[in-house]
Amino acid sequence: MSVTEILFFFLSALAVFSAVMVLVSKSPVHSVLWLIAVFFAISGHYVLLNAQFLAIVNLIVYAGAIMVLFLFVIMLMNLNAETEPQKHMWMKLAGVISGGCLLIILVSMVRQAVDLPGKTALMKEGNIGLIGNLGKALFSDYVVPFEITSVLFLSAMVGAVVIGKKE
Amino acid sequence: MPIQYYIYLCLTLFTIGIVGVLTRRNAIIVFMCIELMLNAVNLLLVAFSKMHHGAALVKDATSSVGIEGQLFVFFIMVVAAAEVSVGLAIIVMLYRNTHSVDINFLNRLKN
Question: From the first residue on, what is the mean pLDDT of each consecutive set of 10 residues in chain B (111 residues)?
């Protein structure tokens, strides 16, 4: 077992465990912290796949900006485990069962696929994930979507302010 | 690393997100589960991008096949950031009006 495989299984186990803890935690603050652990694990996967730009962007945007926003909102509302609304036990059971059925169906579909066996993802090689190559593609072939993105951000900013302001 | 491992991992993360949306009533947790699903899809896109890149490198050592997948992930992150800012504003407005983040208050948007 090579170092890459050990790292892959460690990061996968960390991601799945943290994702389950996001659901199981009673306090919303703990959920946010576990979700940050999931994002760190996924960033580790990006590094393993040699997608370094996405790894850093994932850390900065998700773990840095979005999760801090979530934490701010939760602390602003003063939510804690006592005020947490709970669903009925049967509703939770039904949700878990239906999710499990979906997982079983998807996994069996992947197992039956004839194209997939023998295909491998290139680990720690290949340079398409480096920032130079991505930047060249972004500013030559994809410059129009990139500029439209700024309009999207402007509209999202205006929308957030309009929705969030007091009447 | 076989691509099936990545598919199984991402399916598991995606299903955990779906179960979270179905079983929790706190609107913020539901929103976080949606982020979890988005991240699972992002990871799968990067894995497939590297799969196609690895297949293309065998024929041509300088090809950049598969770079579109990573750019797509970049744009998904951009859209997710915009979505979170608007979504959290909606949740704050909901909390201000009902003094709760229970999504069952939202089953009828009227009143």
Answer: 90 94 89 93 93 86 84 92 91 84 73 55
A11 and A42 co-located in one domain = yes
Q: What is the pTM of this model?
A: 0.91
Q: With an 8 Å Cβ cutoff, are B83 and A156 in contact?
A: yes
Fold that domain B3-105 belongs to in CATH: Helix Hairpins (1.10.287)
The interface residues of chain A toward chain B in range 48-107, judged by CB-CB distance below 8 A, are 49-51, 53-54, 57-58, 61-62, 65-66, 69-70, 73-74, 76-77, 79, 83-87, 91-92, 94-96, 98-100, 102-103, 106-107
DSSP A45-57: HHHHTT-HHHHHH
- Which two three-digit tokens encode residue A127? 């340079």
Range of the domain at A151: 130-167
Cα(A52)–Cα(A135) distance, rounded to whole angstroms?
Answer: 13
ipTM value, please give it.
Answer: 0.91
